Amino acid sequence: MTTLKDVAKRAGVSTATVSYVMNQRTNKVSESVAAKVRKAARELGYQPNMAARALRSNKSNIIGVISEDIATYQVNNIVQGINQEADAQNYHIFLGDLNLNGKIWHDGIQDYGKVFDYRSQIQDKIDIFRTIGVAGIIYAGMHDRDVTGLVQTDIPLVYAYSYTQNEQDYMVDNDNQQVSMEVVKAMIEKGHRRIGLISGPVDSVPAYKRLMGYQTALMNAGLTMDPELIAYGNWSVCAGEKACKKLMELASRPTALFVMNDWMAVGAMKVLKSMGIQIGKDIVLSGFDDIDLCDFVEPSLSSVSLPLAEIGRLAARKVIALANGEKDCTHREELPCKIVERQSFCFTGDGA
């Protein structure tokens, strides 16, 4: 195993000089000497023991990331953001993936409550992180939801795309309410007065906040919220189909639909097409999440894009700040989303 002394001998410098370079204290040595040391380290395949370094200095530059499932687009983008910020601040990430996406299905839908069945696996990851001396931990969720009681640790912890009811916890999420208000406001500004809502489950906090955004936009425009125009689903394509059929059976149909996720929106599109209703002309439609499928359905689906990478970057900045002892970190931050307008949301008639 290559040691610090071996690198020093190859580079023709002292072990102290090698230590300065490996610990990125390059103000102690010239750039030419630092380059010589890095070249020797590469040639010898030297890998510094970051855990031992953390124990010696009582300071670590490793962030432990617990991801619910790195294969999902949400977590993938969050981790990308974490990694970008870690690189910018000369930190490294150590990833512990729970691989939960295929494990939490129940009765044809993903039951996120089943994630609590895997608390022992989460604790195993934390134990490993403690062993290698991480500076802090980020928990990256694959669905924006309440995870109170899921993670137990005294290591600095930040929740990304998830949250708890503990006001002392640190969380970074997206703003569901504001962007939902903006979607419905845009529909109203295009002339629509009967705007249908296909909501997520009644016990979902993100669905509740999106409902509040829908209601606020109507109130601001002087419109009354009609309970008949609201149907509920469980985020699935089938739920979107069922909810859309219910709304389209009304004597006075909606001329616009705001659907709380893209999969239910795809289900709604199937129903509208089967009824001969032209999406983007007879009715406008927006989903939520901006998954890749939005560009490939016909017509292309307007949606809400989530700031997933920025959630990851901010979570990393926050956990590094906490690890460095900063006391003024904001406990909860919600980042703005963006409306992505496509063919399903280009209605130009009066919409009355």
List the helices and strands and how they pair.
Blueprint: H1 4-11, H2 15-22, H3 31-44, H4 50-57, E1 62-67, H5 73-88, E2 92-97, E3 105-106, E4 109-110, H6 119-132, E5 136-140, E6 157-160, E7 170-174, H7 176-189, E8 195-199, H8 205-220, E9 230-232, H9 237-248, E10 256-259, H10 262-274, E11 284-286, E12 303-305, H11 308-323, E13 332-335, E14 338-340
Helix pairs in contact: 1-2, 1-3, 5-11, 7-8, 9-10
What are the secondary-structure elements, in order, as H or E? Answer: HHHHEHEEEHEEEHEHEHEHEEHEE
Protein structure class: alpha/beta
- Estimate what percentage of residues fall within beta strands: 15-25%
| Rg over alpha carbons | 25 Å
Cα(first) to Cα(last) distance is 76 Å
Mean pLDDT: 92
Biggest sheet descriptor: 6 strands, parallel
- Helical stretch tally: 11
Q: Tell me roughly what share of residues is in helical segments.
A: 25-40%
Got a strand count? 14
- The order of strands across the largest sheet is 2-1-5-6-7-13
Q: Low-confidence runs (pLDDT<50, min 5 residues)? A: 347-352
Shape, principal axes of CA atoms: elongated
Give a structural overview:
It is a single chain. The longest helix has 16 residues, at 73-88. The radius of gyration is 25 Å and the shape is elongated. 39% of the residues lie in helices and 16% in strands. It has helices at 4-11, 15-22, 31-44, 50-57, 73-88, 119-132, 176-189, 205-220, 237-248, 262-274, 308-323, and strands spanning 62-67, 92-97, 105-106, 109-110, 136-140, 157-160, 170-174, 195-199, 230-232, 256-259, 284-286, 303-305, 332-335, 338-340. Helix 1 (4-11) packs across helix 3 (31-44), helix 5 packs across helix 11 (308-323) and helix 7 (176-189) packs parallel to helix 8. It has 352 residues and is an alpha/beta fold. Mean pLDDT is 92; it is low at 347-352. The strands form four sheets. Strands 2-1-5-6-7-13 form a six-stranded parallel β-sheet, with helices on both faces. The protein has a four-stranded parallel β-sheet with strand order 9-8-10-11, with helices on both faces. It has a two-stranded antiparallel sheet with strand order 3-4.
